[in-house]
Amino acid sequence: MKKRCSPLSVAAGKGVQGACRLFKRGHSLPGMVVEKIDKGFLASALSQLPLGTMIVCGTNGKTTTARLIAQALRELELRAVTNNSGANFTRGIISSLLPLMTPSGKLPCDIGIFELDEAWAPVFCRQFPPSYALILNCSRDQLDRYGERDSVESMLAQVASCATKGLILNGGDERVKAFSSLAKGAKVSFYDFDPAISPLFPRDEDLICMKQGSYVKAPDGEASVILKRAFGDTALFEVGGEEFSLKMGVEGSFNFLNAAAAMAAILCIAKCCPQIGEKGRFEYVDMSARSVAQAVSKVKPAFGRGEEFHIGGCEVKMVLVKNPVGFSSALRALPLQDKDVMVALNDESADGRDVSWIYDVDYSNLSKIKAVTGERAFDMALCLEYNGKEVRRADLDIAKSLSGFLEGQKDKIIFSSYTSMLSLRKILLEMDKSKGGDLYAAD
């Protein structure tokens, strides 16, 4: 029998959440409080979801992909809950559930889509084995926290082995693809990209080769979704054997690949849920290849991940970067011509204290950088100078640097680590009133 959550725990969590909204801080605090007073809360809440739960893991693209899946499912008439604030620990998931719960402890949703930090995903799996696991990639990330990539691979392997219904893997990442052998009764499916566009998706091993003009092709393999081409804001996908050319709500080849992952994940849910299309609540839910592809194509970026602001007649785009592969991919995918560029680098715990990874990025697409800022601005400026790039200004003061950067009539792109992105975004929200001032909304 599906358990409802304790009304006392729900009341406590909602009370803390109300206080957090009042002070506009502490998004994950309600979940932390509930975890302390009711250790079984998460399992009780998620066991109520008739279509189960999916966790999204990997070193790049978790927030965007989880958002793509959840928003597309809503477009397909399913009630999906997700931790859309980017709070990717178990406490963040609980905080995302609380607003939707009734005072009696009922969770009136169909499915949960949750992004999880690599280290916290195994913790989640021990509390509540997920129905589905989507694993995006395995690259170096936060070296001081995770160590080298082998430790990340070990954590992701634990997640892959816990999926009970479906395991969705990136066929273009050899380490991730190998997790298929760990599936214990779960259906395995893949998404991939055409080898012809492999230069758009560098791996750690490719970064040195990339600078020499040599690329390693992605491994071949069957995939339910293949990204065939990427051009401007349009992508060509092969979905379930059908081809669809779609204008995308997200931008950049790396986000197009995240979209392919989202499509594959939704198709996997459709295959593993006999309720879909049957009489009752899910009778008229259309999860055909065409409907899924179109639903995913409409989703806009998650906050800070390609999000756009309109300030003084200029477009300001924010791009989150946190490791060599992600930064290199962003620099290759986004049009930088005739745009002012800023790089913001912090070294808080959420960013990773060790910023040596910046020396492994391929900066060949950059020329002039108008501003560099953040706690490690001078480290970033020195790295760019070593790479032969002109840096016009470096300043530790983020607000001051942003003010100077916004001068002029050119459109602008900001490449930013996580905590510097939050600081910059708060200022930009105050300047762009069309956003409504919501720190966690990208719509």
Written overview of the protein:
- This protein has 16 helices and 17 strands.
- The protein is α/β, with parallel strands linked by helices.
- It has 2 domains: 7-297, 3-Layer(aba) Sandwich (UDP-N-acetylmuramoyl-L-alanine:D-glutamate ligase); 307-435, Alpha-Beta Complex (Protein-Tyrosine Phosphatase, Chain A).
- The two termini are 38 Å apart.
- Mean pLDDT is 85; it is low at 212-219 and 439-443.
Just name the CATH architecture of the largest domain. 3-Layer(aba) Sandwich
- Oligomeric grouping of the chains: single chain
Give unreliable regions as ranges: 212-219, 439-443
Radius of gyration: 21 Å
Q: Give the CA-based shape.
A: globular
**Which range best describes the helical content: under 10%, 10-25%, 25-40%, 40-55%, 55-70% or over 70%?**
25-40%
Q: What is the fold named in CATH at topology level of the largest domain?
A: UDP-N-acetylmuramoyl-L-alanine:D-glutamate ligase
Q: What's the story with the biggest beta sheet?
A: 9 strands, mixed
CATH hierarchy, class of the largest domain: Alpha Beta
CATH superfamily of the largest domain: Mur-like, catalytic domain
Total count of strands: 17
Number of helices: 16
The number of domains:
2
- Compute the average pLDDT: 85
Q: Helix/strand-derived class?
A: alpha/beta
Beta-strand content? 15-25%
Topology (SSEs and partners):
Blueprint: H1 7-23, H2 29-37, H3 41-46, E1 53-57, H4 62-75, E2 80-82, H5 90-97, E3 111-115, H6 121-127, E4 132-135, H7 143-146, H8 149-162, E5 166-170, H9 174-177, E6 187-193, H10 207-211, E7 225-231, E8 234-239, E9 242-247, H11 253-272, H12 289-297, E10 307-311, E11 314-320, H13 324-333, E12 340-344, E13 368-369, E14 371-373, H14 377-386, E15 390-391, E16 394-395, H15 398-405, E17 412-416, H16 418-431
Parallel strand pairs: 1-3, 1-4, 2-3, 4-5, 5-6, 6-7, 11-17, 12-14, 12-17, 13-15, 14-16
Antiparallel strand pairs: 7-8, 8-9, 10-11
